[in-house]
Write a structure and sequence with these properties.
Elements: H1 8-17, H2 29-45, H3 58-67, H4 74-84, E1 89-93, H5 99-111, E2 122-125, H6 129-142, E3 150-153, H7 159-167, E4 172-175, H8 177-187, E5 196-199, H9 202-207, H10 211-220, E6 226-231, H11 236-245, E7 250-254, E8 264-270, H12 276-287, E9 294-298, H13 301-313, E10 319-321, H14 327-338, E11 344-348, E12 362-365, H15 372-379, E13 389-395, H16 400-410, E14 415-416, E15 429-432, H17 435-451, H18 453-472, H19 478-486, H20 501-504, H21 507-518, H22 535-547, H23 549-563, H24 565-582, H25 586-597, H26 603-619, H27 636-642, H28 648-655, H29 664-671, E16 674-677, E17 682-685, E18 692-694, E19 700-702, H30 709-716, H31 718-735, H32 752-765, H33 774-789
Parallel strand pairs: 1-6, 1-7, 2-4, 2-5, 3-4, 5-6, 8-13, 8-15, 9-11, 9-12, 10-11, 12-13, 14-15
Antiparallel strand pairs: 16-17, 18-19
Helix pairs in contact: 1-2, 4-5, 5-6, 8-10, 12-17, 13-18, 16-19, 18-29
């Protein structure tokens, strides 16, 4: 009878149920039931909020306590119970949130019982070698009392050692997808023994172009596996992958905050594309303190290279990261910024995925992001843990529609800085850049762009890269595009974040310059100089002006109305809000409605339109409500709420966030663009030059994955030597007792000539360039001595 200390009734109950073996690695069904009952009892008895309430076994709980963990993190508290219940989980969490322990603790619980299966029972896939090795070290520390064995299959290591580690039958495999697919194709692994699969940093796996490798691995895994997927963001490719490879997954979201924290100030600076360099240099030199850290986000890697040259000429210390940078250089540059050796970092959205700087002070959006979620992802790196921070966004005319989209996404009204504004409140308001800021660096930049060859070359590349980036940039909403047109000629005051003592005196100067820019003389070029020669032209223009005076007057009135449109709307909203707060009557509401909605329209127009609608309704055929069948059922909203689309697909649809590629190759791959082929003189789709082979699962992978290295390793390994020994034993068994002649030969098996012949056969089977082991050398010396004695 099985009796557990502290739970005698569970032991007696288990003794009754003892029977056949279980597929989960337990010796009997009774042992499996007992483990479940103990887990449920632990969950009920312990207080909520700690690891003990999760029902962990003694071995796993000891490892957690030895590591120093007392209370689980939010992602652990949400995901560990779900994974321990055997559900597939898609979890969104940032780096450093404790997600490694979130998938390792349930793995220990699932694998702690020994299994009769041969082969690894768990697989953890990581995007980089460094992250995989970090997970291995953490797994060894956390699971020190479980007795599980681990192996690594990582790029950069000798593949022969990885063949040997897989033959050692480990419990857990930590791998990078590229090398793991190579090993699977070489060895012909089926992975039928895998029960638990983890895709760590899955969005980075797809960003690195490892989708084919992941699908090949997925095709080799059994259908009964449990799959866990951890990601910081949720690209559309990853959603499709999760729906295809996971069974009814549960989405757990602990990613970027849905709104901007209160401690983060947002500054929106209206400028032109040509003036962004002047504004950037002014921010880094005069506005942002030297001891604060700043990340500058750009659209493409070509802009990063251009700003590298620009900041170097301006004597601003910086570091840079982009997708095509060498991994070692990327690691060094990140360490420079993290250790505050430099305080400015230039990045793209793709390269910034692996960066986690918790004490960041400022963010500058050199190019405004095309998606509101992407803006929140960028600025979410600032003002963490109650710290103060600022995000400066440079808004060009072609990016104004995305600014309107963002304000609607964040909620609230779209506010601008009024002219001659003396206040200090500028959070989330759009302001213009003073002329003094542009004049500060304009002459220097023009000189550099004329004389510096590196700056000229990188600027041309950045301009070409931006043109291709615009092709892949998603469009803004139609309503935002319409509203953005009103900002084109709208007069906006200088942004207070850029104001200094020197700039305050320049406001009057800027007003004069604006008036000069908008000045249009009444006389045309034909009327300048009142001479006898121009009399005919002057008469023609005066007649034309008289004829089109009505059109000119209407256009002037239209411009004035557009200019005051936003100010009038703001005043009306304020009046309505004040009236509602003080308590108004229905008559006041009706009068206000008439003033706002029916302003500038003739009442007779409304009456005539109403009569037209009534006449149309009378002429229209009557609808039989009893027998009429509409295209949509009357309760289609309720049915949509009860439908299955409210599960993972609907949740994932709201969490999708794609990153635009930061170089030419990724942009073309994303859009599936075609290129002009000079030879065939037609557009052809971009093709990959690498040769591909089709695997058993139907996935096309690089042909370099299929070589003969595993067979060669097998010949040089102990397996080949064991086969040779077995063959020798079979030969001796055929030869009979020692000293007798072998059938069909004239010499006995113990004759030196026969020994030499067998040795030659063995050497022929092996590689001639093989390095002999000490026991082989000793054996050869013994054979040589025996031959000399004979």
């Amino acid at each position: 009878m099985v009796e557990l200390k502290g739970f005698p009734e569970l032991g007696r109950e288990a003794g009754k149920k003892k029977g056949a073996g279980s597929e989960n690695g337990y010796d009997s069904e009774a042992e499996l039931d007992t483990a479940k009952m103990v887990q449920e009892a632990n969950r009920k008895k312990k207080k909520s909020g700690g690891f003990q309430s999760m029902g962990l076994s003694q071995e796993v709980w000891r490892g957690v306590m030895k590591k120093g963990y007392k209370v689980p993190t939010p992602i652990q508290r949400k995901t560990v119970p779900l994974i321990m219940d055997g559900k597939d989980v898609v979890a969104m969490a940032r780096t450093g949130s404790g997600k490694t322990a979130a998938f390792l603790i349930p793995m220990f619980e699932k694998l702690k019982a020994r299994s009769a299966k041969s082969g690894a029972r768990a697989l953890v896939l990581s995007p980089t070698r460094e992250l995989a090795m970090q997970s291995v070290r953490f797994c060894k520390e956390l699971g020190r009392f479980t007795g599980l064995s681990m192996a690594c299959v990582l790029g950069g290591d000798a593949i022969e050692k990885q063949f040997a580690s897989i033959h050692s039958n480990p419990d857990v495999l930590f791998a990078t997808p590229g090398r793991f697919v190579h090993v699977c194709v070489e060895m012909g692994l089926k992975l039928n023994s895998i029960d638990y699969v983890v895709f760590d940093e899955a969005d980075r796996l797809f960003e690195m172009g490892l989708g084919d490798q992941l699908r090949e691995i997925l095709a080799r895994l059994p259908d009964t596996r449990q799959t866990v997927l951890f990601s910081a963001t949720l690209p559309k490719l990853l959603v499709d992958f999760a729906k295809a490879g996971l069974t009814d997954p549960t989405l757990v979201r602990l990613d970027v905050e849905t709104k901007v924290p209160d401690t983060l100030k947002l500054a929106f600076l209206k400028t032109t594309s040509e003036s962004k360099d002047c504004v950037l240099l002014h921010l880094l030199k005069n506005v942002i303190p030297k001891d604060q850290q700043t990340i500058v986000f750009t659209a493409t890697r070509y802009h990063v290279e251009y700003l590298q040259v620009l900041l170097a000429l301006a004597d601003i210390p910086f570091t840079a990261i982009y997708s095509q940078l060498d991994p070692a250089a990327r690691k060094i540059n990140t360490a420079k910024f993290a250790t505050r050796k430099v305080n400015v970092m230039l990045v793209t959205d793709v390269a910034a995925r692996g960066i986690d700087i918790p004490m960041l002070d400022n963010v500058i959006n050199y190019q405004f992001p095309a998606k509101s979620k992407l803006f929140v992802h960028r600025v979410g790196r600032v003002a963490r843990a109650g710290r103060q921070g600022t995000a400066f966004s440079l808004v060009a005319p072609d990016e104004m529609a995305y600014y309107v989209d963002l304000q609607l996404f964040l909620g609230g009204e779209i506010a601008t800085i009024p002219q001659h504004y003396d206040g200090d409140e500028w959070h989330r308001k759009l302001g213009s850049v003073p002329q003094k800021v542009l004049d500060e660096f304009s002459d220097t930049l023009n000189e550099w762009r004329r004389d510096k060859v590196d700056l000229i070359h990188t600027r041309e590349q950045a301009d070409n890269g931006y043109k291709k980036y615009l092709k892949s940039r998603p469009g803004a909403s139609k309503e935002s595009v319409k509203r953005a047109r009103d900002y084109k000629d709208m007069k906006i005051g200088c942004h207070p974040a850029l104001k200094t003592a020197a700039i305050d005196f320049e406001e009057e100067k800027s007003d004069i310059l604006d008036q000069l820019k908008s000045f249009k003389p009444k006389s045309t070029i034909f009327e300048i100089g009142n001479t006898s020669k121009n009399k005919e032209k002057i008469d023609i223009m005066s007649e034309k002006r008289k004829k089109h005076c009505d059109v000119i007057e209407r256009n002037t009135v239209k411009l004035e109305k557009n200019q005051h449109k936003f100010s009038e709307e703001t005043e009306i909203k304020e009046n309505v809000n004040v009236g509602l707060s003080e308590g108004v009557t229905e008559e006041d509401i009706e009068s206000t409605f008439d003033e706002i909605v029916k302003e500038g329209k003739n009442r007779s127009d409304f009456k005539s339109k109403a009569k037209a609608r009534e006449r149309k309704a009378l002429l229209a055929p009557s609808k039989d409500e009893e027998n009429y069948i509409p295209y949509q059922p009357s309760d289609h909203h309720s049915e949509a709420g009860y439908s299955l689309k409210t599960g993972f697909s609907a949740q994932a649809h709201g969490a999708v966030l794609d990153f635009t590629g930061d170089d030419d190759q990724e942009i073309r791959q994303r859009k599936g663009a075609t290129v002009w082929d000079k030879k065939s003189k037609k557009y052809v789709r971009v093709q990959d030059d690498k040769k591909r082979i089709k695997t058993e699962s139907g996935v096309y992978i690089n042909a370099s994955y299929k070589t003969n290295r595993y067979a060669k390793w097998k010949e040089r390994s102990k397996l080949s030597q064991q086969e040779d020994r077995d063959n020798d034993q079979e030969d001796e068994a055929e030869a009979g007792p020692r000293g007798q002649k072998r059938p069909g030969t004239a010499l006995p098996a113990s004759h030196p000539a026969m020994k030499k012949a067998r040795t030659a056969v063995r050497i022929g089977r092996k590689n001639k360039n093989e390095i002999k082991r000490p026991e082989q050398i000793l054996k050869k010396r013994t054979e040589d001595r025996e031959e000399e004695q004979e």
